[in-house]
Amino acid sequence: MRKIIVALLFSFIINCKDNSISSIIQLSMEKGVEFKNLKFEKIFDFIHYKPKWCVPFQDRVICKVAVDMNESSYIFFIYDYNKRLIKEKKIKGGIAPDETAASLSSMIISAEENKIIYVDANDYIKSLDINTLEIQTIGKVSNIVKGYRSKFRIGGWGSPERNGKTVITTFESSSFEEDFEYYFVKFNNLFKDFRIIYKSKKPKLINVEKGLKKRIIFKIDYYAFLKKSPLFTVDWKRNFIYYIPDIERPFLEALDFRGKNRKRFELVGIDSKKFKIEKRTLDLYYDYLESIPDPFKELVQEIRVYPPQPPPLQGIKVIGDWLLIITGKRDWQKGENEAIVYRLPSFKYEGSFFIPFPNNFLKPIFWINDHYLKTDLVEVDEGYYFNTTVYRVNIK
Prior knowledge:
Blueprint lengths: L1 H17 L4 E5 L10 E11 L2 E6 L4 E6 L6 E7 L5 E8 L14 E6 L2 E5 L4 E6 L5 E6 H4 L7 E3 L6 E3 L2 E8 L2 H4 L1 E8 L3 E10 L6 E3 L5 E5 L3 H5 L3 E4 L4 E4 L7 E6 L6 E5 L11 H13 L8 E5 L8 E7 L2 E10 L4 E8 L4 E9 L9 E3 L2 E10 L2 E13 L1
Parallel strand pairs: 1-21, 17-22
Antiparallel strand pairs: 2-29, 3-4, 4-5, 5-6, 7-8, 8-9, 9-10, 11-13, 12-13, 13-14, 14-15, 16-17, 18-19, 19-20, 20-21, 23-24, 24-25, 25-26, 27-28, 28-29
């Protein structure tokens, strides 16, 4: 009897520690139901061979681009929505207080009160005045957040969700390429009151093998960045985070801001075997990667991966009282993916519609305020460029 009690107590401790799933909910779908309550209005686009980011405001868009491949300097542009250039300024690349740089750890923290607050290279927090394009250095993340760099870091594909001064985003572990672990984190303003909500893990992505004559076989996967991306969204009204643990499997998970009350939502009715791949778009992406100079290219044998169908899940977003789940069902000609919609908190199915979605995943989609941005890879005059499109999301 004593052994049974000890075993039960041990099981209880383990379950509390790993925050096991408390409930599994099946979400059904109905064919032929069209969702008509959201409209994505195209208001701006910007083409450049090396854009770093664009941030929309109500009357203007601020874009940062690299001047050359070495990123020795950058130009900030201010445009209005008639594509009229309001102002531009060239800034030297570097880490001095009035300079800027770029890295995979860049993150837009906020875009309010005439300023863009962002994390630059070397973990420096920068402020950009959207009228004068003056840059100031505010501080350094590693001097504010305990364990930064040694335990975790800003990842290349995390997209923050904001509610006033409060931010929820993801940090990847310092050894993410080996363990694929990442953290949901919450903080106020400039990393004040920073805390970890929950640690999760992506499926391991194996794309490197040993070949003959010491050559390395590298599998180029069109969906690799998306597979590694921590795709999540926040329901601020009900204090819940929804996320996609594995884009290859049709289910979501959710937990509250304490990292508790973890749930799983199984999506019934997604038939991903009918989703189609367009080889031409994949080849455009692969051709672009192969065009990038690489001194070690002779040591690597690259193999292009052509999956039989796209992953079933590719994005997620809460807008108002709706949960949008972006699937792999794509109209390749129009550049749109299907989004299925559920009403919160009842999870009543409200239909599906198609939204603009990028043709590559080198740059993540970006939601901020009532705007949505996607960046497509395009070929112009035998050269490769990126076309960033800004949409205003209107609730009908």
